[in-house]
Amino acid sequence: MRKKLAQILVVDDQEEILFSAKMILKKHFETIFTTNSPKKIISILSENEINVVLLDMNYRIGFEDGREGIHWLKEVKTLSPQTIVILMTAFGKIETAVEGIKIGAFDYVLKPWNNEKLLEVIDKAVAESRKNSKKASAEKEEKNEKRYFVGTSAKIKQAYSIAEKVARTDANVLILGENGTGKYVFAEYIHQHSERKNQPFVHVDLGSLSDNLFESELFGYAKGAFTDAKIDTPGRFENASNGTIFLDEIGNIPLHLQAKLLHVLQTKTVTRLGESKPRPLNVRVIAATNSDIKTEVKNKTFREDLLYRINTMEINLPSLRERKDDIVPMANFILEQIAEKYNHGHEASGWHFEDNVALYLEKYPWKGNVREMENKIERALILAENNTISVMDLDILDFEEIQENDENPLSEMEKGAIEKALFKHNGNISKTAEELGLSRAALYRRIEKYDLKN
């Protein structure tokens, strides 16, 4: 008879009970732990994945009300919620065992027990434990699953639609877009929706790698390959084995190094510095750049054959200027994410923007795109009071590059904000400018524009 993969802990102060239980259970289950002291439950649970605890309710002579059993039942459920507890009790103490079931015990058995009945109850408890473990794993995975903001603009919806289709393949992807448009997040999205999602996702910022570090970082090196090579070290490609490598800012690679990268992609092998034997690679490649890569090919600063190798599928990410309708919803999404981060993963605790913020968000130029928005919202959350973020907290009052007219409601809002701040600081220009996040010169221009000199 094949034993079931389960770990059972029997807790009783009588050695004959422990011996008897172990003799019966070890024929049917893989691992049996026993202890005559309930105080050892904590260490056993912390060191082992116990499926079922068979727990006696009384441990001291003269104290047979079952309160100790109830106490340790609560301890087990707190320490290891997925562990199933079965209570052991004498015939006359069933009432306390029933109380235990109400607060979380799975069942109870009477001492002396019937062997078949004991095995039947533990069988059911093991099945319940496995069900609990699967549920806990699913909940953990759901909790840890990263949320992505898609939006409603046609361009971004098209980009995500392509991403979902290409994620199901192993095709190489080239992501194009301005700085701050979320190329890293988009690459991660493709990885998370692929068959490789449980394997490594390795990000390499090629723009920050110097020429002399390029090969050792990407391809690895053997011990003694150069002065500081103390041990054999795999490169980023090997670290991404069976997963995805994200080559960010690929347009920054010098021509002489592009040839070496191309060889790796063509042969699907990598050779560490100081070695001659190539190592096979199973890696999905996603690359990204904010440069006009096709112009670079025309100008002979980027290899055409390397471009063909990395852009089996090309995806363009729009700037925030091209997705105006997404700006306010995105800001709310980012605020919620950052609030949860600062609240250690709990709910966002009611953080919100003041009512007039939406118009300013939509009109602000957002040259740094999503990254700039994230930075401004995080800074605002740190500075804001009462869980409410204002335009001044966001530091988006300076509209030098926005063509406004008298009919724009933003002008009236800005005028009102300046009047309020001037009054608050008794006309002090330095303090007013500091509160509004403006330079003194910019504040003077607005005072003249809105005729606030008096």
Characterization of the model:
It is a single chain. With 454 residues, the protein is α/β, with parallel strands linked by helices. The protein is 46% helix and 15% strand. It has 19 helices and 16 strands. The strands form five sheets. A five-stranded parallel β-sheet has the order 2-1-3-4-5, sandwiched between helices. Strands 7-10-13-6-14 form a five-stranded parallel β-sheet. A two-stranded antiparallel ribbon has the order 8-9. A hairpin with an 8-residue loop joins β11 (269-270) and β12 (279-280). α3 runs parallel beside α4, α17 crosses α18 (429-436) and α18 (429-436) crosses α19. 31% of the residues are buried. Residues 400-407 have low confidence and may be disordered.
Give a brief outline of the structure:
The protein has helices spanning 15-25, 41-47, 67-79, 94-102, 115-144, 154-167, 183-192, 211-219, 236-239, 255-267, 293-298, 304-310, 327-342, 357-363, 369-383, 391-394, 409-424, 429-436, 440-449; strands at residues 4-11, 29-35, 52-56, 84-90, 107-111, 173-176, 201-205, 220-221, 233-234, 244-248, 269-270, 279-280, 284-289, 313-316, 352-353, 388-389. It has 454 residues and is of the alpha/beta class.
